[in-house]
Amino acid sequence: MSYFQHEKQFIRRRGAHHRPRGTFDKRYDAIKGELTFTETHLPALLEQARVKLPLAIDIRLLIDSLQMTDAHRQEVLEACRQSPESSIVVVHGTDTMVQTAEVLGRAALGKTVVFTGAMVPYSVQGSDAPFNLGFALAAALTLPPNAYVAMNARIFRWDDVMKDKVEGTFKTKSQVSHRGEP
Predict the structure, then answer these.
(1) 181: pLDDT confidence band, cut at 50, 70 and 90?
(2) pTM as predicted
(3) If you average pLDDT over every residue of the chain, what do you get?
(4) 3-state secondary structure of 113
(5) pLDDT band at 7 (very low <50, low <70, confident <90, very high)
(6) Cα 103 to the center of its chain, rounded Å
(7) Contact yes or no for 63/22 (Cβ under 8 A)
(8) Exposure string over 43-72, b if 16+ CB within 10 A, otherwise e
(9) How far is CA 173 from the centre of its chain?
(10) Mean of pLDDT values over 8-29
(11) Angle at 101 between CA 97 and CA 105, to 5 degrees
(12) Residue 166 confidence class, pLDDT cut points 50, 70, 90
């Protein structure tokens, strides 16, 4: 299994890979008065959860997902394509996670690639990062090959997911388009 984190890290099981990063790894910089990236929380999270799977962590693209370009998405695609693992988790910023998942989904790599992230940084109390990471790892180990988004205790196929910026969750495209209807 591979695990990738975006803003960008990848985790892969030696049989996982980690890539991009986003809100997941942001920390508050009191001097700058903003959230910034310094290092990943992945090893600590995996240790805290007592994950004993043989995992490989690949940290790349330490940028906010809003700064991602098509070239960055192609870099994520190529890293997943070249990974020897068949199960990959990509930790990605939530703002553009769906766009990157679409690039990998359209490529049909024949691997299980699960994107996840956090709406609240791991360094902030009440973060959803630990749950989402564990959920994504489990999803990557059990789902058939395809690209998915695993957020908010739900799994979405790459071609039927949207971030609902009003509610701060991920939903199917039909759920977002039918908002307000009975």
Answers:
(1) very low
(2) 0.81
(3) 80
(4) strand
(5) very low
(6) 14
(7) no
(8) eebbeeeebeeebbbbbbbbbbbeebeeeb
(9) 19
(10) 50
(11) 170
(12) confident
Per-residue pLDDT band at 8 (split at 50, 70, 90)? very low
Q: What spatial distance separates the first Cα and last Cα of the chain, rounded to whole Å? A: 41
Percent share of the chain, pLDDT over 90: 45
| Amino acid occupying residue 45 | L
CA separation for the pair 164, 4 (Å, rounded): 23
Helix (H) or strand (E) holding 150, with range, is strand 146-151
7 contacts: CB under 8 Å, gap ≥ 6: 20, 21, 22, 23, 24, 25, 26, 37, 61, 62, 63, 64, 65, 91, 92, 93
37 Rama class: left (phi>0) / alpha (psi -120 to 50) / beta: beta
Largest CA distance in the chain: 48
Query: How far is it, in rounded angstroms, from Cα 133 to Cα 143?
Result: 15
Please name the residue ranges forming H helices in the chain. 42-48, 70-82, 97-107, 129-142, 173-177
Complete domains list, the chain, with CATH: 2-177 (3.40.50.1170)
Reported as a pLDDT band with limits 50, 70 and 90, residue 159 is very high
Q: What is the C-alpha to C-alpha distance for residues 46 and 98, in angstroms, rounded to an integer? A: 24
